[in-house]
Design brief:
Layout (H helix, E strand, L loop, with lengths): L1 H12 L1 H39 L3 E5 L16 E2 H8 L4 E7 L1 E2 L3 E3 L14 E5 L8 E6 L7 E5 H6 L7 E6 L2 E13 L7 E5 L1 H9 L4 E2 L1 E6 L5 H12 L3 E5 H48 L1 H9 L4 H41 L13 H26 L3 H5 L8 H26 L4 H38 L4 H13 L1 H39 L4 E5 L5 H8 L4 E10 L1 E4 L5 E2 L3 E4 L3 H4 L4 E4 L9 E5 H7 L6 E6 L4 E10 L11 E3 H7 L10 E6 L4 H11 L6 E5 H44 L1 H9 L4 H39 L10 H18 L1 H8 L3 H6 L2
Parallel strand pairs: 6-11, 8-10, 19-24, 21-23
Antiparallel strand pairs: 1-13, 1-14, 2-12, 3-13, 4-6, 5-9, 7-10, 8-11, 9-10, 15-25, 15-26, 16-19, 16-25, 17-18, 17-22, 20-23, 22-23
Helix pairs in contact: 1-9, 2-7, 2-9, 2-10, 2-21, 7-10, 7-15, 7-21, 9-10, 12-13, 12-23, 13-14, 13-15, 13-23, 14-23, 15-21, 15-23, 21-25, 23-24, 23-25
InterPro entries: ABC3_permease_C, MacB_PCD, Macrolide_Exporter_MacB
Main location: membrane
Family: Belongs to the ABC-4 integral membrane protein family.
Length: 854
């Protein structure tokens, strides 16, 4: 009880000094809890949607998968006779045929895409009574003929659509223009999909290319019949190649498809929260180390009147427990706010999430509290242990915590060993022959060098701080020298404070090098390999209408088609490979200049010929002249002669196997021929500008496809990598904010620790302005120390990672020096900002009171 009272008294007495540490815990816990609440809310939204849209039992083609479209771009379907048979099955109350396709684009009269910009699908289908489970018609009526359609209310609101407007739906089977006669509203939250409905005959004809067919059959159970029993009845009656699912199984499949995407978001954000926690550990260690040092005499008195070493230790740990609990409780509440903010941000980007679905599971605050408290207590353990070692007599003489030179030497040796082992792992990764092996070594090297630099930080602080001071502080005379000595006074403290900033900046530097190298490598590869003037692609396969418009564009010397085929290859050694094959026109050999190790690529586009990649050829012992068995899915099996082996050191189309469009058509029926996933074009000599404008004009009616020349393509790559890096930098900003709080806290506690010293300096003539400058310079030096370590580590990590990318064909190393220099200069401003409050408080000290302080 005495320990608890003492801890509570000390905690309240130093609540101002604990505040920044509590904020660090709060931010870290808030990010973890916010991530969990946000992802749980998204899961709840999708769960409600899937549950309400699923029928008691659904019947679909055996090969149908909710997230995939067949290679020909037309959904798999069932004959109407199947529906008639299902209606006669015992236990069936009703059955309806449904038509649905996600391989569509919907545009308005100005050819503006009505679909989502966040990756959510655009869905077209037929309106039936089954849809009334999830939607209700709130305006107009359901479509009644080929010129009528209905849209969902969210899409109508987003694009200001109203009854009477016309929309054009583009599918692989053709275009259809219809007038909006109804608007339907979701009964649950629509995460962002755009949905349009037609009457059943129109949906069948326009989406499936034939009437009398359905993509699935929705079956409703009669009273007293369970879903499982109904499924057995229907399966027994139909037999054959069908897929039968209960409502729960259907929802689980859809949930699984979305879950993979959700897990990526969840674990990525939790990873950045973990980095923030790691940075916060240094802040907490520094805080308690300095508080213990400032209470040396108090600890000595406690020991002198009978407190044991364990009681002193527990007293400090209880303070940490209180700090962790308060910060975690506030963090849990802030986490809910972060989740709501993320939902609003996603809403602005086009993905709708409603606060009505806000989900705070019981495990979320439990995880936040446990994580925050445990991390805080563990971080405070070493300062608590050192506090327990203070002997009563040493403390009463103000000798402070025991200086253990041997412990410092051991620490330095451990740090050097870890750093050396990490450097060896990085070197091994950079010289690895396979990217998979090298990536494991890279991860090991990053972890070891990071821990090594943290451990060896105090040793590095002496040399690095002196170098920085020689460059920046000596010009400021005595004030600069005092700032340097203050930074060197406690190397362990300086090392821990700098390490907190080091972690975030190391990741920034590493990712900057990787991102810049990827862009530079891809740009170099484009310059070297791509001979086409124009590249056309989109987020949907290219429909025949767009392909025809492209082929009829004036000013083009040739147009190249490029298709991906589902096929199983069997090599001469009898090994099967189902990763498919590419079919292209012979002009593709000019559009993409792929080097070969054997043969020439143009020969691969002959009749019954193909090419393979060098990795495949080496693995299976394939050479030019060998014959491979190729089983085309939906078609016949062919024996194709290997006419070329392409060099897989190129990043573009690495590992691709090619055959000609003519060979594909020989073995694949017309109904199974897939659409082009990308198309290339070459302009006639001297007509590049005219052909570019003409091609853009020809494809204006199909806004889902982008026409890019090589300059556009390079800029697109740069923008995509830049957006990804900006997102990562934004998440890393949390760790950097916590690191800045660490610098502020260290300086604030240092000012308190040096109160008497500051009073004496003021008494002998140091002005307030000089005092503030000295503290600001000390802060800048600490920040630059952390920046130098972080940027050095990050450059090493990034360079090693690029060596692994070179094994995948991205062989250009580019160091983004403007970013690196900008981050280093920014670190100096971070130091200045962090010192504002401590310097201001130091300048306001009363000189006489400061001198009288014990």
């Amino acid at each position: 009880m005495t320990v608890l009272k003492t801890s509570l008294r000390n905690f309240l007495a130093h609540k101002g000094r604990m505040a920044l540490s509590a904020i660090a815990v709060l931010l870290s816990v808030a990010f973890v809890c916010g991530t969990l609440v946000f992802t749980d809310t998204m899961n709840t939204t999708f769960d409600k949607l899937f549950s309400v849209t699923a029928s008691d039992v659904t019947v679909s083609p055996a090969d149908a998968k909710s997230e995939e479209t067949p290679q020909n771009g037309v959904p798999l379907s069932l004959p109407a006779a199947t529906l008639d048979r299902v209606k006669t099955v015992g236990g069936v109350k009703s059955a309806e045929g449904a038509v649905s396709s996600m391989s569509v684009t919907v545009v308005d009269s100005a050819d503006e895409n009505m679909g989502s910009t966040t990756g959510a699908p655009t869905i077209a289908g037929n309106w039936s009574d089954s849809d009334l489970r999830s939607m209700e018609i709130t305006s107009g009526h359901a479509p009644r003929g080929p010129t009528e359609m209905m849209v969902d209310a969210d899409t109508a609101d987003k694009h200001h659509l109203k009854l009477g407007d016309e929309l054009r739906t583009i599918a692989q089977t053709g275009d259809v223009t219809a007038r909006i006669v109804g608007i339907a509203t979701f009964k649950v939250t629509n995460p962002g999909a755009a949905v349009v409905y037609f009457d059943t005959p129109t949906a069948q004809r326009q989406l499936l290319g034939a009437t009398g067919r359905y993509t699935q059959i929705n079956v409703t159970a009669a009273a007293g019949v369970s879903d499982a029993q109904l499924k057995r009845n229907v399966a027994r009656a139909l037999g054959g190649p069908y897929k039968f699912q209960t409502a729960e199984e259907n929802a689980d499949e859809n949930r699984k498809d979305v879950g993979a995407f959700m897990d990526v978001i969840k674990y990525a954000m939790l990873g950045f929260a973990g980095i923030a926690f790691l940075v916060g550990i240094f802040l907490i260690i520094n805080t308690f180390s300095m508080l213990v040092a400032q209470r040396t005499r108090e600890i000595g008195l406690m020991r002198a009147i009978g407190s044991s070493r364990g009681q002193v230790n527990r007293s400090v740990l209880v303070e940490a427990l209180l700090l962790g609990f308060v910060g975690s409780v506030l963090g849990v509440g802030a986490g809910v706010g972060i989740a709501v903010g993320l939902m609003k941000l996603m809403g602005a980007a086009g993905m709708e999430l409603s606060t009505r679905d806000l989900t705070v599971k019981a495990t979320t605050p439990a995880v936040g509290l446990v994580l925050g408290v445990v991390v805080t207590v563990l971080a405070a353990y070493l300062p608590a242990r050192r506090a327990g070692k203070v002997s009563p007599m040493a403390a009463l003489r103000d000798a402070g915590t025991p200086a253990d030179g041997r412990a410092g030497l051991v620490r330095a040796l451990i740090g050097l060993v870890l750093t050396g082992a990490g450097a060896a792992a990085l070197y091994a990764a950079a010289t690895a022959d396979k990217a998979t092996d090298g990536s494991l070594l890279l991860g090991l090297g990053i972890v070891l060098t990071l821990i090594g630099f943290v451990v060896i930080g105090p040793l590095l602080a002496g040399g690095v701080v002196r170098v920085i001071s020689a460059v920046l502080l000596r010009a400021f005379g005595p004030v600069g020298r005092m700032a340097e000595r203050n930074a060197l006074r406690n190397p362990r403290r300086t090392g821990a404070t700098g390490a907190a900033l080091m972690i975030g900046l190391a990741l920034v530097a590493c990712l900057s090098v990787v991102g810049s190298s990827m862009v530079a490598s891809a740009t170099s590869e484009l310059d070297k390999s791509v001979g086409a003037d124009f590249i056309v692609e989109g987020n949907q396969p290219i429909v025949p209408q767009a392909e025809q418009a492209m082929e009829q564009t004036p000013g083009l010397a040739h147009v190249t088609r490029y298709k991906i085929l589902d096929a199983t290859l069997t090599s001469p050694d009898g090994k099967a490979d189902d990763s498919g094959i590419m079919a292209a026109d012979p002009t593709y050999a000019d559009d993409l200049r792929r080097p070969t190790t054997e043969g020439t690529l143009k020969d691969a586009y002959g009749t019954d010929a193909m090419s393979v990649g060098s990795d495949y050829a080496e693995k299976h012992g394939v050479h030019v002249g060998d014959t491979l068995t190729v089983a085309f899915k939906g078609g016949r099996t062919a024996r194709l002669k290997v006419a070329a082996i392409t060099d897989d050191s190129s990043a573009i189309d690495q590992g691709a196997r090619y055959t000609s469009i003519a060979t594909m058509e020989k073995y694949l029926p017309k109904s199974q021929v897939p659409p082009n996933v990308i198309m290339f074009a070459k302009a006639e000599d001297g007509r590049q500008k005219q052909a570019y404008a003409a091609l853009k004009s020809a494809l204006k009616k199909y806004p889902t496809y982008q026409v890019r020349d090589q300059t556009d393509y390079k800029q697109e790559l740069k923008d995509q990598v830049g957006q990804l890096l900006n997102m990562v930098y934004g998440l890393l900003a949390l760790a950097i904010i916590v690191a800045v709080l660490g610098v502020v806290n260290t300086l604030a506690l240092s000012v308190v620790e040096r109160t008497r010293e500051i009073g004496l300096m003021r008494a002998i003539g140091l002005s307030r302005r000089q005092l503030r400058r000295m503290i600001r310079m000390e802060s800048v030096v600490i920040a630059l120390f952390g920046a130098l370590l972080g940027l050095g580590l990050g450059l090493g990590w990034g360079t090693t990672a690029q060596k692994l990318l070179a094994l995948e064909g991205l062989g250009v190393l580019e160091i983004p020096w403007p970013t690196i220099i900008g981050v280093f200069i920014g670190s100096a401003f971070v130091g200045l900002f962090a010192a504002l409050i401590p310097a201001f408080r130091a300048g306001r000290m009363n000189v006489l009171n400061a001198i009288a302080t014990e």
